[in-house]
Amino acid sequence: MLRFTKDHEWISLQGKVATVGITDYAQTQLGDVVYVELPEVGARIEAGAQFAVVESVKAASEVYAPLSGTVKEINHALSDSPATVNESPESGGWFAKFELDDPAALSKLMDEAAYKAYVAELG
Amino acid sequence: MTGIDDLSVTSNQDLGPLQQTPLHAAHVAANGKLVAFAGYEMPVQYPTGVLAEHLHTRSSAGAFDVSHMGQAFIDGHPDPADVLEQLVPGDIKGLAPGHSRYTMLLNELGGVVDDLIVSRLPRVPGRLFVVVNASRKANDFALMRSRFGGRAALTELNDRVLIALQGPKAATVLSRMIPDAVQLSFMQCALYRIGRFDAIVTRSGYTGEDGFEISMPQAAGVPFWQRLLGEAEVKPIGLGARDSLRLEAGLCLYGHDVDETTSPIEAGLSWTIGKRRRASGDFPGAERILEELVQGPARKRVGLRPDGRAPAREGTIIVDETGKTIGSVTSGGFAPSLDAPIAMGYVEAAYAEIGTKLGLVIRGKVNPARVVAMPFIPHQYKRSH
Predict the structure, then answer these.
(1) Residues B27, B34: Cα–Cα separation, whole Å
(2) DSSP letter assigned to residue B144
(3) What mean pLDDT do residues B90-94 have?
(4) Cα(B226)–Cα(B209) distance, rounded to whole angstroms?
């Protein structure tokens, strides 16, 4: 199941583990990503809390956890090649994998069609 | 995530409708991403992005619309430098025709009201050409008028565009349009004729590269911009790369690295205070500034290199090895030419030595960093011999 947030994160669920990253729209708006700060593996993150920071040449942006869970894995490749977030935001540029407290809650988020409509409205 | 709409370069946003430069339509046509800056709607980047624009300027040539900056003539007889020197510590009387100088307007406490370039054009004795920051121009020009009284006249040049052409190919490109301009050396200026119009050209800039700043009437400036962009070596560059380029060059951004509380001595700009001016001490805030020249200032502007890859942004607290706060970052970001973060900030004078190990508190964590020499990359100015 693939879902999206209004904060421009994507969440892809396989079993109980959700992979999270930022959307193509987000990376376009940010511009060249030069640094990504990721959480510690094992960290507990509550829904809505900041779990990562993504920095472009000009500015730092916080990335929020869409749902509560525990960090199981982080994308170490981003520390050496943060530009992967620009090149493939919705595959190789993933940020972290979470074990969600309540995977069923994911279905309440926007599906791809709803997110596309949301972005289209932003202009 | 937050900050998606926060790509504007600084907050200097005035209330009310944004102004546009005469090149606004060209920025829109080039798909520039427009943001509010100092009361103007300006391109922060074009579709290729800040990183590519930055590197293009360093390797070829970048064209910058800086028409939002304040341009003015100061006329006085026999020399308007007499009255301008009452506001600045630079040697303006000694500025020879055809030369430009970096100086600053000071307040009575020796703080910097603005930094500016003053040029004395050849063959026009009694006239100075000044360029001040966009965010300060209303303030600066009011201050000048009130101080000049009837002894010099300030004429704002609101109908002129100002274009910066910067980079190793800048001279080659400009020679196709203004062949004589390449004879200028760094910080020299001249007046040229382009068709029916005049162009004031200074060999100067805000990137650390060789380059030119070209002022011309709007009617000539709009086609000139298009002509520049038609040259193979040239790309338009937005405010984002303008900021990262000047940061790598170790140059101050007004309102960030210098402001009304910082003295030129603290900012490492003692070199702008002429010998004659030091002796006469006849500029605002001379008491503090002369004392700092002798005693050394309590704090100093330094260059910083974080050890890791995390950029330290403006406002980041600087600590010593025991964790004591010793200063803060005034400009910080990522240096595309170095593929590493860089910053500048103020620290207590005891920590300003090159090589000093410091800490930068980024999101609650102390990141090791060290004091380094500025500029972060060598300047490429074409100096006279």
Answers:
(1) 8
(2) H
(3) 97
(4) 22
Q: Say which of B6, B50, B363 has its CB closest to residue A57.
A: B50
What span, in angstroms and rounded, lies between the C-alpha atoms of B308 and B135?
34
Q: Taking 50 as the threshold, does the pLDDT of residue B276 lie above it?
A: yes
pLDDT tens digits along B18-76: 999 999 999 999 999 999 999 999 999 999 999 999 999 999 999 999 999 999 999 99
Q: Tell me whether A28 touches chain B (CB under 8 Å).
A: no
CB contacts of B7 in chain A (<8 Å) are 29-31, 56, 58-59
User: 10 Å Cβ neighbour count for B292?
Assistant: 18
Contact A49, A98 (CB under 8 A): no
A57/B3 CB distance under 8 A: no
Are B346 and B327 in contact by the 8 Å Cβ rule? The answer is: yes
Angle value at C-alpha B376, between B373 and B380, nearest 5 degrees: 115
For tokens 């920095």, name the residue. A55
Spatial separation of the C-alpha atoms in residues B274 and B294, rounded to whole Å: 15
Query: CB–CB of B105/B118 below 8 Å?
Result: no
What's the rounded Cα separation, in Å, for the pair B159 and B327?
42
B1: nearest CB among A31, A58, A63: A63
CA B334, CA A107: separation in Å to the nearest integer?
38
Query: Phi and psi at residue B325, in whole multiples of 5°?
Result: -70, 125
Q: Which sign does the torsion angle of CA B216, B222, B225, B226 carry? A: negative
The full DSSP string for B67-79 is: TTSEEEEEE-SS-
Q: How far apart are CA B39 and CA B36, in angstroms?
A: 6
Identify whether the C-beta of residue A66 lies closer than 8 Å to the C-beta of residue A49: no
- Min CA distance, B43 vs chain A (Å)? 14
Alpha helices in B149-266 (DSSP H): 170-175, 218-229, 239-248
Q: CB-based contact (8 Å) between A57 and chain B?
A: yes
Q: Answer yes or no: is the ipTM higher than 0.95.
A: no
- Residues A11-26 pLDDT 10s: 999 988 999 999 999 9
